[in-house]
Structure formats: C-alpha cells, structure tokens
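Subject: Sanity check before I submit

Could someone independently write out the structure tokens for this chain? I want to compare against mine line by line before I put it in a report. The sequence has 599 residues.
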Amino acid sequence: MNQKYIRNFSIIAHIDHGKSTLADRMLLRSGAITPREFREQILDDMDLERERGITIKASAVTIPYERGGQKYMLNLIDTPGHVDFHYEVSRALTACEGALLVVDAAQGVEAQTVANAHLASKNRLTLVPVVNKIDLPAARPEDVAMEVENLLATPAEDCIFTSAKTGEGIEDMLDAIVDQLPPPTGDADAPTKALIFDSNYDDYRGVIVYIRVFDGRLAVGDRIRMMGTRDVYQVTDMGKFTPRPTQFKSLQAGEVGYLVANIKTVSAVHVGDTITLESNPAPEALPGYRPPQQMVFCDFYPGPTTQFPDLRDGLEKLQLNDAALIFQAINSEALGFGFRCGFLGMLHMEIVQERLEREHNIEVVQTAPTVPYQVLTTEGKVVEVDSAGELPEPNHVEEIREPFVRVDLIVPADSIGNVMKLAEERRATYKQTEYLSADRVILAYEFPLAEIIYDFYDKLKSATRGYGTMDYEMIGFRANDLVKVDILVNAQKVDALSVICHRIKAEARGRGMIVRLRREIPRHLFEVPLQAAIGSRVIARETIKALRKNVLAKCYGGDVTRKRKLLEKQKEGKRRMKMVGNVEIPQKAFLSVLEGGEE
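---
Independent answer below. Compare away.
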C-alpha cells in the first residue's frame, strides 16, 4: 500500500480512561471483528490484564478503514496507562507518527495524562485530543476540553467527544486520524531498517519479533541480520495482527507487523535493535531506546515446590517481552540461591511475580523491596548498591546518596492541606503549585524514592477521598543522613534482614522489625536476644524468653535443697547451651519482616 494511506498511531491516557475499550470500538467499526466476536478488552489477551482491568503489555493491531472509496491502513499500538509501564509507552511511541490523547470526561486531566502528553511531545508526535466517556451522568466534556487546552495549548474546539461504550463519535475520531496524523516518511528503496519494539516467546515457533519497518522492505525467505548482535536468521513467517495473526508475504516501509525466523534463544533478541537485510545491510542502526532505569529491587528465591533452574528459565522468558526486568543470581545464607531483580515500580514487581506463578507455575519467595543507593567511599569511588548487604563497612563510607524523584500530584483544591502534611511526613521538598481549573491543582514535589514506593499512593488516595493521582520521574541521587540498620539474633548478624534508612527513622524501623521477629521465632531452651544496631551501637532490643522444662515435676516432697540443686543444675546447662546454641529462624519469620512497611 502507498505510504500516504498508512497511519501509525498510539492511544495514550491515564489508567482507566478507556483506551482499550476505544480500541475495541475502532476494530468493530472497521469490520476487523464481528459484533459476535466483540468483547471488552479484546487486545488485552493476558488473563492478568483482563482480571485487573489494566493494560500491561503494549499490543499492535492493523485496522482497515475505508472512506470515500479510498482504503487506509491504520496501525494502532495500544499502550498501558499505569506509571510503572511508562517504558512500554515510550517504546510504542517511537514506532508511531501520532497519538490519540484520551481524557475521561468525568475525571478530567490526570497525572499520567500530563506525563504521556509531554512524552509524546518529546518524540515530536502529532496529538489528537479525545474526550471519552461522554455518556456518563457525571461527564463534563466542555470543562475537560478547557483543561486539555491548558495542557496542550490546542483550542478546546479541536477535542473530539466520544463514548467508547456506545460508539458515539468513533466516526469523527477515525476521520481525525486520517486527516490530522501524518503518514510515515520511510524510503521504500533504501536499505532495509526495521525497529524491534517488542517480542514474545512461543514454545513451538521460538521468538516472535514485533517490528516497525522504517525503510526498505522485508519478505518471507529473506536472510536478516540483527545490527546489535550481528546474528543472521532466515525469515520463515511474517504477518500482521488484524487482531488475529494474519500471514503476509512481505512488509513495506511504514508498516507494522511481526516476523518469525527460527530464533531459539531468548537472549538473541533485544528490544530497540535494528533488523536489516544481510545482502544489502543498512550503514547505521536506528536510534533504538534509552535503557530503562530500574527504581525498585527485591530478591526472588524458589519456593518449596520450585527448583532454582526453573526460576531462572521463567525469568528469562519473561524478560523477553518485558525489557525493563533485570535480574542477577545471588546467594543468601538464610534463603539459599535466588535472583536479585530490578523493576520499574511496585506494580511492575507484583505483575512479574504473578506472571511467574501463572504462566510458568513457579512459586516465589520474595524479600522486601528496596531502592538503589550510591555510596561515595573514602577512596573517592562511587559504588551503586541495591541492597543493604552490599554496603561497605562504615569506616569506608564517606556518604550515602539516595534516589530522588520529581512527583506531580493532581489533587482537589480542598485537599491541599492534607496532601502537604503527608508530603512533609515523607521528607518531601515543595516546588510549585499550578491550577488546572478552579477546583483541581497540580502540586510539584521532590521526594526520596524510598518514601513513596511502599504505601504512599494508598495514603494519597485516603487524603484526597480517592481523587488524587500521581506521576513521578527520576531526577538523580542526593547525599542524605542514611544509615545501615543491622539485625542481630543471639548476637549474630543476619545479613538478609539488614536495611538502609534515614537516621531519624532508624529506631522505629529497627524496633518494628525485631518486634515482628519476636512473634515469629519459636522459643528455645535458652533466652534469645534480638537487637537492632547501627554499626556497634544497639538502638533497640527485644528478648525471646527461654522455654523452661519442669525439672521439679518428680520432686513431690523432701528437703528444699533438693529442688534448689536441680534448678541450679538446669541453669548451668542453659548457660552452657547458650554459649553453643544455634537459633533456628523459620522462613515465615523472614517473610514477616521482609514484607516491608513499618510497625
């Protein structure tokens, strides 16, 4: 098809503003699916996506559209809305020339709407504003159109009013895609360049690679080269999702589709790599993607029914279509062999764990999430650590730096006081206030990342009666008064339980951990001290009382000295036992402490 009749676009929006339903409605209107096949979230094919009602993976689909006798090819990439999957959105936008910015007619502009609009502008995409859900009783489309005007500096009249549920306005939206979004500008005669924007693993066909062809063409039977790894493969199958996989003999410049090339190993495909023809290679690769920055780290260990190699295989397969997941093997005295994994956020971590359990039948024991830190040593070196166990000894540490993020909070004007109080408790620095409308405000803060990854979002929802939303982006590392809190059980340091936290919160955090430990560790025949310490200074202590065997049970009379003698003998035995005694810490105790949060 001639490139001027092709449109490559994404739908971007805040979570739950109706992106997936809008995509469903477009497929139905174009005839790509029949009314009998129509169901909600047709592009969200993971069970997890359908259950949670969120999009996790960006998915590509080709929609045929006819207007005035002219046929158009609309290539849609449906993207996630949650802040943790921001990287999926950035990858999808690189494969497009334009985007629909969807805003809920009842809720208006939210935090992720602002972030995604800025991201699209950075990628020089043409934006078409769409106000969705105009059928809701609480809809206020004209007010929301004014909010969009303030955000994008485009006239409010240019907003397209739609209802994905009823189908109203879908025709206008499709016309706007054709009229306002630019066609691709690739050169069909230049050496082939195709960008890998996603990939998937199939047990029977190997790796399925999702591509956008920028220049040249690709056809079944071509020998292709990955420009990053220099590996060469032969294309055995290719096609497009319409939304079912449909085979095509070739893909031209400007088109989006998939290819299969007998790629057996997961590590052979890198998202952001460029595919070219071996016979006529392109002189240089496409820019690709900036590597994602992991914000949250935690350790995964195999559960009782899982072997270490199974966990490794499961993580490798997940990493193939989740380029933001990283992991490396580690060993813990307490929990054995496992992996330290890096994630974009807490939801990303939850999703990975659930996908391991569902898709690969792997049981996982997970430690508390932590954030990465930078340590300036006394020798002047900067070392990045993502767990307290990697921290050098205190006498080698000059300063510890923690990650800071810029957070935009969109809240009702009458909740500003509550939100500011919450931000102050979390060591935040106030930056600015900006009014979206008379009753909605954007508050900008700089937060230590460690203060928002646990339960900040829940607290924000409580403080704003459910109306607050947030978006954050990394701004760098800053030195702070941070300390390592060690947990000692019977005077022995347990590395798996060490944490890094701010000095003012160290005592509360340490005490909370040893209180939980005291509840979970069973009593022994000797007294077990539990201590939280910073360096050599103990800041909190709890004691597990000794179990006492009744050695007087058989003494039913006689002189008191007989009883005293038996008790002294028992006391001496316990003292000796304590000297050589080894405390058994059950896994349940580790998990109760590693759940995170504070007592």
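---
OP: Matches mine. For the report I'm noting this point. The domain at 484-594 is CATH 3.30.70.2570 (Alpha-Beta Plaits).
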